[in-house]
Design a protein that fits this description.
The complex is a heterodimer of chains A (461) and B (486). Chain A folds into 2 domains: 277 residues, no CATH class; 146 residues. Helices cover 66% and strands 4% of the residues of chain A. Chain A is built from 15 helices and 5 strands. The longest helix of chain A is centred in the last third of the chain and has 34 residues. Chain A is globular. Chain B has a domain of 253 residues: DD-peptidase/beta-lactamase superfamily (Beta-lactamase, 3-Layer(aba) Sandwich). In chain B, a hairpin with a 6-residue loop joins strand 16 and strand 17. Helices cover 40% and strands 18% of the residues of chain B. In chain B, the strands form 5 sheets. A 6-stranded mixed beta sheet of chain B has the order 3-2-1-4-12-13. The chains are: A mainly alpha (461), B alpha+beta (486). Chain B: InterPro entries: Beta-lactam/transpept (IPR050515), Beta-lactam/transpept-like (IPR012338), PBPA_dimer (IPR054120), PCN-bd_Tpept (IPR001460). Chain B: This is Penicillin-binding protein.
């Protein structure tokens, strides 16, 4: 009998209390910093947040008792902090007379929906392997969701990116849901075809190159990514989808050759995008020499203001209410990390990066210990989404890589993203529950009889 | 599949390490250079919201920050805005001028000399406070200078500079028309931007500190430099006989230049003293021609031409004595015409050097820099820039200037009971503009305490009444009296 994972639900509860201290404490600090008093609705707000977290925790206790104990607290802390930062921006936007100053309230509603879907996912999906049946359904749904914004009547273009749909007054980014669907589709497809993709091919120098006929799926995915890039003008999502596919392909086939092929394709795509799509070229230039394009339009004003803000924040930040995050356009969505950097400093930014790092680490650990190939690929895919998204958006905001529009998971304002990410966490918890659960006993019940059979003394005369 | 998962883990680790390193680089290493970017409005706003130090004249704070109840916490106020605007400059959200600019580090509290104060502020968690700047200005002299220019008829454009000859301290510096820095310090940035635009486009240039920023032909006041060069050459003294007469014919030219009053200066040969007394054009045209461009330029540069000397104020213009003038131009330069231009500060420095035995002292406005608790952090020491003329030359020039005030063109500056040294100037200007009126003087002649230069660029005086003596003399006199009687 081997190692058995402990449930660790008590540890999860303790960490959740810490996460709530972060969320509610930050909310109180926003009130103190910006308005000088503890917010009047602190009890109501704190109560609501606590209720959501407790509901999620109880659900995990009931239907996924062996699930990873660290993921939920990490997500709760990030979401709580995000809400507080949105509240802080709301107060300034309201003071400046802007129409949109209820981001925190809306985000709390979306978080509620996210937690409801989180619970629903865990309750309804008792075994993640069920999803494998829906490989092609999920794939088709994913592609359809990506195409939706192009359809007349429902599709809408906001801020130059055609990635929105508008249904009954709500705008939604279907791409956020599509990425979960595509992970399921990739995992289901690759777990079936990994042998064909892995074994056939020839060896060139030290790299095993795949067969030409097996290039079909990767070319299809490449095509989808380029379509997103060219038609939707959405560099970030394009990078995310293709990177995700490459990582999953590599894990499924264990062949670095795919990475070489994918890398070359990506390089060619990036070069083509740089040459033919003006937007991409701009962003590349803004990244290399942000200070030179400050006054231009389109220019690097947003990025430079974010850099100024973060530089001004320094090691420990200016404190809530003492910075000027409102100088950065979209401080509530893509650039929320710059707001945190300005007011809470490098310390908080590092803490956030570490939180994301831990989420990815837990996801990959779940993949390592998962007993089935589909679960492994699912966990790797979900972890890779978080890792790539965080790297692309925080790297962009801090000037490490060219800026691409993506939301920061759990922090940024955005209903679609928040809801989708809560489902991602629910799926990860489901896979980890399966992985950590003690293996079913396969031995026959009556051991003594069997033993007596095998130890029977045979008389030979 | 576990091996590639481990590879992916390492890859993710690298990604997150890159994020951590880059954010550290951005927010710790690069933070300072980002703060120094002039486009960084956060820094500007933070500086704007700080309790800025005061600018003091005597015991009075002419510029200080008082608490305000808006988001910027402090409002800069100027107690005597118009009178001191050329020195203090303004402090607006967009930029600063004058002492507000040159002493910005001290006033904002960023100066390294305020390090201990900053450390204490940080440890005691009090808001940082700026240091104070004590000016050299004598309030009585400044009042007199301002009153003098303000009393000129109409919208006079002019400037007055008073120096302490032995040290170079600026005792008064006034420029009209001027502006109200309180309007620039307003927190209504839209109005400030509009005001800036409006004053920049104003043809009367109210934003320019004429005392240091306007260069005009110095006219007859430059004859002091010509006379100094002549005496320094060793061929002349105060009693030497020099050419007089009605007209002087420029070399290589048929043009003749008359004397200002059309007279003959009292004869064909007159003494140098007499030439200065009546401001004889013929004399100094011929002296400059005889001395040549090199000697004249050397003398002008020894007095401070072709460079700037005052380090405490931005916006200085260089007084010019070009070295590439031809013979007629050189001759004309002897009476402060052609390409010679000077600021009022430069002409005050000429007078101060003559008063100070020929030593040109570096003029300065900032006397002391003080911490918020008023302890003195730094005091400016007087420094000599150059020895323009010998002590004996200075004595002879002083005698000639005293005679000019006692019984010459500079008589309006006479002060009963003591000797005043002075020289008038009335410079031709281009086109149909009225001439510029100059006056330089110092007093008392035997123990100089103050040297003054007055420039009246234009006023509502009829052209035939304009003369350096009549317009500038009384102003110079009242400034000198204010200093001597304090």
């Amino acid at each position: 009998m081997g190692f058995v994972h402990r449930r660790r639900r008590g540890a999860e509860l303790f960490l959740l209390v810490l996460a709530l201290v972060v969320g509610i404490g930050a909310y109180a600090a926003v009130g103190l910093g910006v308005e000088g008093t503890v917010p009047a609705d602190l009890v109501g707000y704190g109560g609501w947040l606590t209720a959501l977290i407790v509901a999620a925790h109880v659900t995990v206790r009931l239907v996924a008792p062996y699930a990873d104990p660290v993921l939920l607290p990490l997500v709760a802390a990030l979401n709580g902090l995000g809400l507080a930062v949105l509240r802080r921006l709301d107060l300034t936007y309201e003071a400046n007379g802007l129409d949109q100053h209820t981001f925190a309230r809306q985000q709390l509603t979306w978080m509620t929906l996210g937690v409801v879907l989180f619970i629903a996912t865990l309750v309804l999906l008792r075994d993640h392997r069920v999803l494998q049946r829906f490989t092609y359904t999920a794939g088709l749904t994913g592609i359809l969701l990506l195409i939706l914004p192009f359809l007349p009547f429902v599709g809408r273009e906001i801020n130059g990116a055609r990635i929105w749909i508008n249904v009954a007054g709500f705008s939604f980014q279907p791409g956020e849901v599509a990425k979960v669907m595509l992970v399921i589709a990739f995992a289901g497809y690759l777990v079936l075809h990994r042998d064909a993709l892995a074994l056939a091919g020839r060896r060139v120098v030290f790299v095993d190159l795949p067969r030409g006929r097996d290039l079909g799926p990767i070319m299809a995915m490449f095509g989808v990514s380029m379509m997103i890039l060219v038609l939707q003008n959405d560099l970030g999502s394009s990078l995310l989808f293709f990177g995700l596919f490459l990582v999953m392909l590599y894990v499924a086939t264990e062949r670095p050759g795919w990475l070489v092929v994918g890398g070359l394709l990506f390089g060619a795509g990036a070069l083509a995008a740089y040459t033919f799509v003006g937007n991409v070229q701009n962003r590349f230039n803004f990244w290399l020499r942000p200070m030179d394009y400050y006054d231009d339009s389109p220019g690097s004003f947003q990025l430079v203001e974010a850099l100024f803000g973060q530089g001004w924040g320094g090691l420990i930040g200016r404190g809530f209410g003492n910075g000027f995050p409102e100088r950065v356009p979209f401080a509530y969505s893509d650039f929320i990390v710059s707001t945190i950097g300005e007011e809470l400093g490098l310390t908080a930014v590092m803490a956030i990066i570490l939180c994301y790092g831990l989420i990815v680490e837990r996801a990959l650990r779940i993949a390592l210990i998962s007993r089935d190939g589909f679960g492994k690929l699912l966990a790797v895919g979900l972890g890779a989404i978080v890792a790539l998204q965080v790297f692309v958006v925080i790297g962009g905001v801090t000037g490490l890589i060219p800026l691409t529009g993506l939301t920061t998971p759990f922090l940024s304002y955005g209903g679609s993203s928040l809801v989708a990410n809560w489902v991602v966490v629910a799926l990860l918890l489901r896979v980890s529950d399966q992985a950590r659960r003690p293996a079913p006993r396969l031995e026959p019940v009556d051991d003594s009889g069997a033993d007596s059979e095998t130890t029977q003394v045979v008389k030979l005369r | 599949m576990n091996k590639p998962i481990r590879v992916v883990s390492v890859f993710c680790l690298v990604l997150f390490m890159a994020l951590l390193v880059n954010s550290t680089y951005l927010m710790y290493v690069r933070a300072d250079s980002l703060s120094d970017d002039p486009r960084n409005r956060r820094i500007i706003t933070a500086t704007f919201s700080r309790e800025r130090g005061a600018i003091l004249v005597g015991k009075e704070a002419i510029a200080r920050s008082v608490p305000s109840d808006d988001r910027y916490k402090f409002q800069r106020t100027y107690s005597q805005p118009l009178k001191y605007a050329p020195i203090t400059g303004y402090f607006s959200w967009f930029n600063q001028t004058g002492v507000e600019r040159s002493q910005n580090a001290v006033l904002a509290g960023d100066d390294s000399r305020l390090f201990v104060t900053r450390l204490v502020d940080m440890l005691s968690n009090t808001d940082p406070q700026g240091g104070n700047v004590q000016l050299t200005v004598d309030p009585a002299a400044q009042d007199a200078a301002w009153a003098g220019l303000d009393a000129l008829p109409g919208d006079a454009q002019g400037a007055v500079v008073a120096l302490e000859p032995t040290t170079g301290r600026v005792l008064a510096m006034v420029s009209t028309p001027t502006f109200d820095p309180n309007n620039f310090a307003s927190h209504d940035f839209g109005a400030v931007a509009e005001l800036g635009e409006q004053l920049n486009n104003d043809p009367r240039d109210p934003l320019i500190n004429r005392a240091i920023g306007t260069t005009l032909p110095p006219g007859s006041t430059f004859k002091l430099v010509t006379a100094a060069a002549a005496i320094e050459s060793g061929d002349y003294d105060a009693e030497s006989m020099v050419p007089g007469g009605f007209r002087y014919q420029l070399p290589q030219s048929t043009t003749t230049v008359p004397n200002y009053d059309g007279g003959n200066c009292g004869g064909r040969r007159i003494t140098m003293t007499q030439a200065l007394q009546v401001s004889c054009n013929v004399t100094f045209l011929s002296l400059a021609n005889e001395l040549g461009t090199e000697a004249m330029a050397d003398q002008a540069e020894a007095f401070g031409f072709n460079s700037t000397a005052l380090e405490d104020l931005p916006g200085q213009a260089e007084s010019l004595y070009p070295r590439d003038m031809d013979a007629p131009q050189t001759a004309l330069s002897g009476i402060g015409q052609s390409s010679v231009t000077a600021t009022p500060l430069q002409m005050a420095m000429v007078a101060a050097a003559i008063a100070n035995d020929g030593d040109v002292m570096r003029p300065y406005v900032v006397d002391e820099v003080r911490a918020p608790n008023l302890s003195v952090l730094d005091r400016t020491d007087p420094t000599s820039i150059s020895k323009a003329i010998s002590s004996s030359t200075a004595d002879e020039l002083t005698e000639m200037m005293v005679a000019t005030v006692a019984s010459g063109t500079a008589s309006p500056a006479q002060i009963p009971g003591l000797d005043v040294a002075g020289k008038t100037g009335t410079a031709q200007s281009t086109g149909d503009r009225p001439p510029y009126a100059w006056f330089v003087s110092f007093a008392p002649a035997d123990d100089p305490q103050v040297a003054v230069a007055v420039l009246v660029q234009s006023s509502d005086t009829s052209p035939d009444e304009i003369g350096g003596g009549r317009l500038g003399g009384p102003i110079a006199k009242s400034v000198m009296e204010a200093v001597i009687n304090r």
